[in-house]
Amino acid sequence: MLVLSRHRDESIMIGDDVVVTIVDIRGDKVRLGIEAPQSIPVHRQEVYDAIQRENRRASQTSSAATKDVKPPRE
């Protein structure tokens, strides 16, 4: 893990497309501004984890749960 020190209004670059800026610092909380192309998803860790859990759950759906789903007509 790379650890950097930044002050308010300072930024870091991730690759050529992602800019992370320190927007505010209040006590033990830091507010970040993130600029990234729409093609790069940006989520808080807990949201990302929930998405991953849901994706795993959906991929493990049994064939019994989908037996009544009709294939698309050609």
Can you describe what's shown?
- This protein has about 70 residues and is of the alpha+beta class.
- It is built from 1 helix and 3 strands, in the order βββα.
- The protein has one helix spanning about 45-60; strands at about 10-15, 20-25, 30-35.
- A 3-stranded antiparallel beta sheet has the order 1-2-3, with no helix packed on it.
- A hairpin with a 3-residue loop joins β1 (about 10-15) and β2.
- The longest helix is centred in the last third of the chain and has 15 residues, at about 45-60.
- The radius of gyration is 20 Å and the shape is elongated.
- The mean pLDDT is about 90.
Provide the descriptors you would attach to this structure in a database record.
20% helix; three-stranded antiparallel β-sheet; single chain; 74 residues; alpha+beta; elongated
Write the layout of secondary structure elements.
Blueprint: E1 11-14, E2 18-26, E3 29-35, H1 45-59
Antiparallel strand pairs: 1-2, 2-3
Secondary-structure content class: alpha+beta
Q: What proportion of the residues form beta strands (DSSP E)?
A: 25-35%
The count of DSSP E runs of length 2 or more, i.e. the number of strands, is 3
Helix content: 10-25%
Oligomeric category:
single chain
Gap between N and C termini: 51 Å
User: How many helices in DSSP terms?
Assistant: 1
Poorly predicted runs: none
Query: What strand line-up does the widest sheet have?
Result: 1-2-3
Query: What Rg is obtained from the alpha carbons, in whole angstroms?
Result: 20 Å
Largest sheet: 3 strands, antiparallel
- Give the CA-based shape: elongated
What string gives the helices and strands in order? EEEH
Mean pLDDT: 91
